Amino acid sequence: MELYSGYVNKLVDELAALPGIGNKSAQRLAFHLINLPEDKVQRIAKVMTEAKANVRYCRECYTMTDTELCPVCADPQRDHSTIMVVENVRDQAAYEKTGKYKGVYHILHGAISPMIGIGPGDLKVRELVERCAGDVKEVILATNSSLEGETTAMYISKLIKPMGIRTTRIASGVPVGGDLEYIDEITLTRALDGRTEI
Ligand code: ZN
């Protein structure tokens, strides 16, 4: 006999497939959802569907946005000749939270990882090189200090430097393998201020 109803099992399976949700958490969430009032569940489902249908990549920096250009790229006060390259939208949010960075971003959506078969073609690398053909003075490589992040930074610097663009790497001090989003604002500001030419 199955432990739970088929519908509960299906819900648990879907939730358990989400990142960071183990089987126990999935069960807890599933029962929580089932016990919620009908309208609340419908609201959650609607918000998820709407987000999926309306969120897209910014045509400049590839962050997630509701509009064609994200608020950072659309802001004329930002320095559009300085591009900070980050692995994901959460890393961008971490830097944006410091309020110290005045340039724009480029989101790669991952890092090069031969171990799991992720190459430059799976990331927004070509799009970055295309952006660099415009009026770009500096590219700040702010990928994580993990092996994948370092590999990605080296790979990109080899493409960008010959274009005559200043290419810098954020200072170490960002813990090795540490996800940028978990690092405090002071550390991030220091990493940015202490960036060096590569
Ligand atoms: Zn943008």
Q: What class do helices, strands and sheet pairing give?
A: alpha/beta
Number of strands: 7
In terms of per-residue confidence, which ranges show pLDDT below 50 for 5 or more consecutive residues?
A: none
Question: For the largest beta sheet, what order do the strands appear in spatially?
Answer: 4-3-5-6-7
The structural domain count equals: 2
What is bound: which ligands? zinc ion
Strand content: 5-15%
Which word captures the global form? elongated
Gross CATH architecture of the largest domain = 3-Layer(aba) Sandwich
Q: Report the C-alpha radius of gyration, rounded.
A: 20 Å
Secondary-structure element order, N to C = HHHEEHEHEHEHEHE
Q: Termini distance?
A: 62 Å
Estimate percent helicity.
Answer: 40-55%
Biggest sheet overview: 5 strands, mixed
CATH fold-level label of the largest domain: Dna Topoisomerase Vi A Subunit, Chain: A, domain 2
Q: Which CATH class of the largest domain is shown?
A: Alpha Beta
Mean pLDDT: 91
